[in-house]
């Protein structure tokens, strides 16, 4: 999701930015309006004519977009479409059933990491903190409400032409709601908790941001304390079943009575959601239904095996309250990587600090795992946060090297377009709003629609259901990349 620059005016002024790893003095603004601590968009160089210096422009120059970040954002959106739509055909790339990490499990952390980097660049200078805070609050509310509409249960998915949601059972949290909360916490900390200290060394860099880092550490310790310290008692849930024309509710008991468990039925993350949000407002098809205990087709969904535990049908929200609070720390990590862009002038310094920081995060991830906290996206464990944040850091460094250093950007332009309109692509494609709309136009039978027929044709051509689905998804990614390119050419960018 893209955060736009805060265009407010006020009497407050940021201190002059000094490179963290360079002894040179601060550079002045270039004629194009971009300062040297920004990464300029890739464009052919033009000869400069010797002319008299123009009078200073009192208007605030618009910062250029960070192309690496657009490409990274677009790749993440494309990856989300791939794993969501092809994950059923290739369960190995779908989300891990509970413990472990697969390709799909890097999508959400990448979004949060990118948001953090954007926050650091957008709020590099804040003329008016109150006005900036107001903008952050408004954008947070918009994201949260949009998430309720898209993922609250109003749309019923592929091959289901009905819509509508029982407000007593609307899902309260989802992807956009998680992004909204992470964005809010990181942005507010960037506005209010950064000290007004000139940065001319590593020590002054720490002095400037240590309060912000402390907040991230407190969130992490709070999460660990609740995850390991909360007592989870036995609990019940209801399952709706149909016999003939009657619908009945059966009450099922889940036996827990434990503390510090990270297994699906008895963890503190689920306990907090059941108490605060209520069972009716949680996700009703949790990923642990693909575990060996709950599916004969594991790691894919399937019928319950004989002797399946009672909790297999229980609700659980992978974007619940406690896990969302922990996921916000990924935004803070992204903010730190964005600060490196601001204070390190040269490519080598940025690449070095990003690489070292990412390596430290990955090492911490495996260290925390060795101490008994496994990788788990549904719980958003600390080890999972460290691992995915470190991988996101390596991904940013790699894309930055290709796009901004060696100028290998032409083959990635389709992802740049998608990244510049990530929100609209997420809504229409990744959230399946556009495919559901197309499926509403059919010939005689609902199954005879453009989406289903195109996928069926590709499966016939590939002589394989799985590979045909993959071909269809790749075609879908190409379609949305080109659509985003058309919007870019017309200068249309959708953001909240």
Automatic annotation (TrEMBL):
The chain crosses the membrane at residues 66-83, 103-124, 136-155, 175-197, 209-232, 325-344, 351-372, 384-403, 423-443, 467-489. Residues 1-62 are annotated as: Disordered. It comes from the Eukaryota. The keyword Lyase does not apply. Pfam families: HGSNAT_cat. Residues 19-32 have a biased composition (Low complexity). InterPro entries: HGSNAT_cat (IPR012429). Residues 65-226 form the Heparan-alpha-glucosaminide N-acetyltransferase catalytic domain. The keyword Metal-binding does not apply. Keywords: Membrane, Transmembrane, Transmembrane helix. This is Heparan-alpha-glucosaminide N-acetyltransferase-like protein (DUF1624). It comes from Rhynchospora pubera.
């Amino acid at each position: 999701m893209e955060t736009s620059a805060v265009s407010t005016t006020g009497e407050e002024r940021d201190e002059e930015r000094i490179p963290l790893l360079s002894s040179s003095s601060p550079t002045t603004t270039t004629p194009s309006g971009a300062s040297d601590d920004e990464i300029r968009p890739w464009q052919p160089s033009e000869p400069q004519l010797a002319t008299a210096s123009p009078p200073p422009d009192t208007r605030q120059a618009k910062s250029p977009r960070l192309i690496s970040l657009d490409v990274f954002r677009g790749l993440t959106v494309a990856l989300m479409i791939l794993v969501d739509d092809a994950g059923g055909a290739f369960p190995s790339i779908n989300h891990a059933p509970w413990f472990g990490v697969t390709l799909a499990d890097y999508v959400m952390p990448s979004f949060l990491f990118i948001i953090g980097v954007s926050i650091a660049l957008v709020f590099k200078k804040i003329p008016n903190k109150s006005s900036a805070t107001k903008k952050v609050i408004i954008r947070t509310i918009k994201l949260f409400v949009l998430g309720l509409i898209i993922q609250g249960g109003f749309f019923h998915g592929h091959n289901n032409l009905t819509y509508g949601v029982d407000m007593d059972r609307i899902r309260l949290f989802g992807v956009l709601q998680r992004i909204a909360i992470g964005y809010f916490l990181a942005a507010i900390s960037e506005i209010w908790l950064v000290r007004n200290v000139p940065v001319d060394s590593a020590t002054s860099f720490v002095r400037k941001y240590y309060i912000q880092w402390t907040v991230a550490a407190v969130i992490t310790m709070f999460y660990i304390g609740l995850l390991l310290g909360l007592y989870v008692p036995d609990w019940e849930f209801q399952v709706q079943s149909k016999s003939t024309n009657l619908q009945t509710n059966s009450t099922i008991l889940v036996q827990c009575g434990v503390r510090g468990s990270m297994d699906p039925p008895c963890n503190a993350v689920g306990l907090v959601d059941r108490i605060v949000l209520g069972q009716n407002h949680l996700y009703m098809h949790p990923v642990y239904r693909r575990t060996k205990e709950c599916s004969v087709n594991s790691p894919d969904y399937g019928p319950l095996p004989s002797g399946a535990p009672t909790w297999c049908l229980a609700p659980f929200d992978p974007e619940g309250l406690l896990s969302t609070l922990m996921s916000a720390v990924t935004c803070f990590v992204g903010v730190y990587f964005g600060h490196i862009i601001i204070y390190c002038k040269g490519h080598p310094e940025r690449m070095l600090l990003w690489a070292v920081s990412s390596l430290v995060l990955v090492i911490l991830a495996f260290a925390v795992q060795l101490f008994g906290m496994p990788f788990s996206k549904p719980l958003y464990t600390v080890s999972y946060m460290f691992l995915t944040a470190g991988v996101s850091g390596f991904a940013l460094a790699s894309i930055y090297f290709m796009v901004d250093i060696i100028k290998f950007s032409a083959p990635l332009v389709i992802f740049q377009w998608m990244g510049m309109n990530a929100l609209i692509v997420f809504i229409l494609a990744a959230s399946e709003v556009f495919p559901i709309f197309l499926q509403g136009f059919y010939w005689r039978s609902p199954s005879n629609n453009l989406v289903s027929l195109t996928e069926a044709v590709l499966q016939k051509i590939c002589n394989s259901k799985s590979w045909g689905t993959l071909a269809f998804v790749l075609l879908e990614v190409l379609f949305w990349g080109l659509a985003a390119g058309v919007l870019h050419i017309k200068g249309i960018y959708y953001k909240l």
